[in-house]
């Protein structure tokens, strides 16, 4: 338990530092690479807390696919080596306000839900099996799951239609 | 046996042993692959002898090569992004090392017992794309950038059939744990005949074929070597690398070949298990790695055979092949496997 707390803190600090670099970096590709570190940190946190399937999915989907597409897109369009002063937009203050609001909402939701109630440590650290995840998705949450997959399919077809206009 | 020995050691001692074991598990197959196939088999297929001077039959050639690369200067091109350039090969090699951690070589001879083993290995293998893109961009060279982009496009396209081909095995075995998959094949039966178990290459042959093709593409071996096509791109994303960092890319390439072939051996050829010897028998901790190495070399032999035989795909053929043929075939394979699994 103590070892887990220590590693949680180390990874969390690294994540915060990288997250700050994502928004302050003057090179858009460096920002994307710092984002890789943040997302890898999230995967590590999932694994530390016993949510192994979620952690592996995080690596496969976010690092292996989403960020590769980010890097791919950046390199295809504009990827200068060195500093770029035009990276900072005028709307960064607005973005800061949105981030603060998001933080407030999530902090409120967490405090409201758990307050001072401590989670059962033994139960919480029990590794969550893949079977439990699939049981939950395909039994309890079947209808939301189908709705989400339908939405994704619609988005996919929409993207193809938009991309090939002829 | 090894479980008894390990129980007496402190955590840090076990960790050191694990690191040494991992180094051996990564480097020995990689070296064997390079000597056996790249040096010797390629030479014989081209009616020449290959390296003969260093050691008997040139078997020490590998050490000579490593010594040569280590002596060379660690060059950084003018205008390159130094930090990203320096880290790129390390990212590629690290992803290969982590892939090996979930592969079982015997009842106790493995590094991490992860319930989602095969899923973990495939997820980690996809991280190497980031290293390749980093290398392509940071070199400040148009050939490198083109190589990096081609490589990323290819790896994304062929990752899907790779994962989908594995799904058939996972459905049939009922587990994602690689040790569990070995056990399921060992204890399986085909039409009531169980003395050699049920290696999934027979029941999942379509999955095996798709996996082998996708693996060839993931390793960017010819005929899927558009990213490093030497007549167009010099050496793709590796163009500007020299010395130690080039060596890392080179080791990464063949160690990844070893890792993928180990995964294929576990998924389709029955892994380390031998018929007639108990599943938990201690002797398998010694025999298992040898059995695995034999099966891995068989798989790499197939890869290299295709590599030295077929000419290179064009970029559009490459993409069409993945999206229009391999992915539908593997989806049908999953559907059929799932139906049969429920029916029987």
CATH class of the largest domain in chain A: Mainly Alpha
* Percentage of residues in DSSP E strands of chain A: under 5%
Q: What is the H-and-E element order of chain B?
A: HHHHHHHHHHHHHH
Name the overall outline of chain B: globular
Mean pLDDT of chain A: 83
Low-confidence stretches of chain B: none
Average pLDDT reading of chain B: 82
Instruction: Please provide the ordered H/E string of secondary-structure elements of chain A.
Output: HHHHHHH
Report the sheet with the most strands of chain B, covering strand number, pairing sense and barrel closure: none
The number of domains of chain A is 2
Helix content range of chain A: over 70%
Please mark out the parts of chain A with pLDDT under 50 across 5 or more consecutive residues, or reply none: none
N-to-C CA distance of chain A? 59 Å
Strand content of chain B: under 5%
Radius of gyration of chain B: 21 Å
Just name the CATH architecture of the largest domain in chain A.
Up-down Bundle
The assembly state of the depicted protein chains is heterodimer
Q: Which range best describes the helical content of chain B: under 10%, 10-25%, 25-40%, 40-55%, 55-70% or over 70%? A: 55-70%
| Largest Cβ-defined interface | A-B, 27 and 31 residues
The radius of gyration over CA of chain A amounts to 20 Å
């Amino acid at each position: 338990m103590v070892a887990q707390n220590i590693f949680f803190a180390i990874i969390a600090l690294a994540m915060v530092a990288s997250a700050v670099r994502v928004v302050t970096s003057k090179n858009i590709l460096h920002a994307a690479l710092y984002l890789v570190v943040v997302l890898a940190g999230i995967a590590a946190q999932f694994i530390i807390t016993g949510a192994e399937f979620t952690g592996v999915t995080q690596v496969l989907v976010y690092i292996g696919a989403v960020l590769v597409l980010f890097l791919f897109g950046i390199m295809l369009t504009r990827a200068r080596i060195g500093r770029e002063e035009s990276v900072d937009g005028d709307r960064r203050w607005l973005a800061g306000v949105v981030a603060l609001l998001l933080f407030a909402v999530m902090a409120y939701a967490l405090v409201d839900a758990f307050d001072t109630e401590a989670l059962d440590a033994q139960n919480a650290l029990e590794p969550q099996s893949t079977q439990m995840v699939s049981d939950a998705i395909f039994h309890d949450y079947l209808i939301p799951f189908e709705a989400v997959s339908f939405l994704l399919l619609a988005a996919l077809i929409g993207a193809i239609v938009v991309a090939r206009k002829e | 046996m090894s479980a008894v020995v390990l129980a007496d050691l402190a955590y840090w001692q076990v960790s050191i042993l694990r690191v040494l074991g991992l180094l051996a598990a990564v480097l020995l197959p990689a070296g064997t692959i390079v000597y056996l196939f790249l040096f010797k088999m390629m030479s014989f297929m081209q009616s020449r002898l290959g390296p003969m001077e260093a050691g008997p039959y040139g078997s020490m050639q590998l050490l000579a090569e490593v010594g040569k690369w280590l002596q060379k200067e660690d060059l950084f091109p003018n205008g390159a992004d130094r930090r990203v350039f320096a880290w790129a090969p390390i990212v590629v090699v690290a992803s290969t090392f982590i892939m090996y951690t979930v592969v079982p070589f015997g009842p106790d001879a493995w590094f991490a017992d992860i319930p989602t083993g095969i899923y973990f290995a495939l997820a980690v293998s996809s991280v190497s794309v980031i290293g390749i893109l980093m290398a392509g961009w940071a070199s400040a060279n148009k050939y490198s950038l083109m190589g990096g982009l081609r490589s990323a496009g290819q790896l994304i396209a062929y990752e899907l059939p790779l994962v989908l081909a594995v799904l058939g095995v996972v459905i049939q075995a009922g587990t994602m744990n690689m040790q569990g998959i070995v056990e399921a094949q060992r204890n399986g039966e085909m039409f009531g005949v169980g003395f050699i178990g049920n290696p999934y290459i027979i029941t999942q042959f379509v999955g095996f074929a798709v996996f082998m093709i996708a693996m060839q593409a993931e390793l960017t071996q010819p005929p899927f070597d558009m990213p490093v096509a030497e007549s167009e791109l010099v050496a793709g994303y590796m163009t500007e690398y020299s010395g130690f960092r080039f060596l890392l890319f080179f080791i990464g390439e063949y160690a990844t070949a070893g890792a993928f072939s180990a995964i294929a051996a576990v998924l389709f050829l029955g892994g380390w298990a031998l018929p007639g010897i108990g599943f938990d028998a201690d002797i398998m901790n010694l025999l298992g790695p040898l059995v695995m190495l034999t099966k891995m070399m068989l798989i790499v032999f197939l890869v290299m055979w295709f590599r030295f035989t077929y000419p290179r795909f064009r970029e559009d053929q490459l993409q069409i092949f993945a999206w229009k043929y391999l992915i539908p075939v593997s989806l049908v394979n999953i559907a059929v496997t799932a139906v049969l699994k429920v029916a029987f």
